[in-house]
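Sequence in, structure out. Go.
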Amino acid sequence: MKRTWILGVGVLLLGQSALAQASQCGDILSHSMQQLRSKETVDLCEQFKDKTLLIVNTASKCGFTPQFKELQALSEKYADKGLVVLGFPSDDFMQEHDDENKTAEVCYINYGVKFPMFSTSAVRGDDANPIFKALIAKTGEKPSWNFNKYLVSKDEETVQHFGSKVSPLDPDFLAAVEKMLMK
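Output:
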């Protein structure tokens, strides 16, 4: 009886350990980030685990800012297939408002962004937010300007980098998104 009880407890603990490991995320998603113009934080692992991600460093005063419209269209087109676009405003290239209310106005009102946007943060260098540190470590590519795109597989093992000039609606980029969604 005692041996059966000990064996049962051991199996239960192994099961809990396996469950905890299964719910863990990799270096990219194992963080909480503050939402744009909010005190609310988002547990990225909890919200976006097992999703294909398109992570973009954004700026609201950049020549590439109109890509917000294309990113929103992409988000809507592939949401039901598991794609989530995540926007990270950054002033690393001196093209973001100091006031997050103005950043939010550009995103939400001017361009109709509905995908998750986070508080302004650094995306390169020692001060880079932990998501971009992980993306740079995986790809060897740091953002060279605003609107760099990182396409991340569901398991966070495959990450592709696309520069600012690549339109979110470019046929080759869309092919890469569709291929990543199938992984």
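Check: Confidence is low (pLDDT under 50) at residues 4-22. Helices lie at 2-22, 44-48, 67-78, 100-110, 130-139, 171-181.
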